[in-house]
Amino acid sequence: MNSLHSWHAKLIAGIRDPYLSDLGLLALRLWAGQEFLLAGYTKLSGGIHAPEWFSGLSFPGPLALLPADLNWVMAGTGEIVFGLAILIGFYSRLAALGLLFITFVAIYTVHFDLGWAGWNQIDTDAGLGFKVPLMLALMLFTILTQGSGRYSVQESSP
């Protein structure tokens, strides 16, 4: 019994090691950052003009006053700039806040009416639901509340 207790204590001590605990934040930042970089690149690689489906969307609040092309470029640019910031750990909390705004606008305008769809339908019209953006939002919330961790360009202070 003592050996089991000793093994458990060593395991818990290892998990509490700050060098190991920040690996989770690093993995989360790398995944979320590359997802947003890719999304922004995909948007802007087609040009600065919004596609037809995007032009017909109803945007919330003051974004409704802006032309669709400007909303398209701002979303793509924000995803690239903030995605890169999260990826390298530079002002990660501010970048997470910016990406949370972009994500919630996307959920509100595009994904919510399409329902709860997940990974297994992601490459189909049924896969455009809000489950995946919501999971990304939860990742961003973690970065917003925890910072970028020790493995970052700008180590966040607690």
Automatic annotation (TrEMBL):
Subcellular localization: Cell membrane
Transmembrane spans: 70-90, 97-116, 128-145
The protein, known as: DoxX family protein
Keyword Transferase in record: no
Source species of the chain: Methylophilus luteus
Membrane topology qualifier: Multi-pass membrane protein
Sequence similarity: Belongs to the DoxX family.
The entry's keywords: Cell membrane, Membrane, Transmembrane, Transmembrane helix
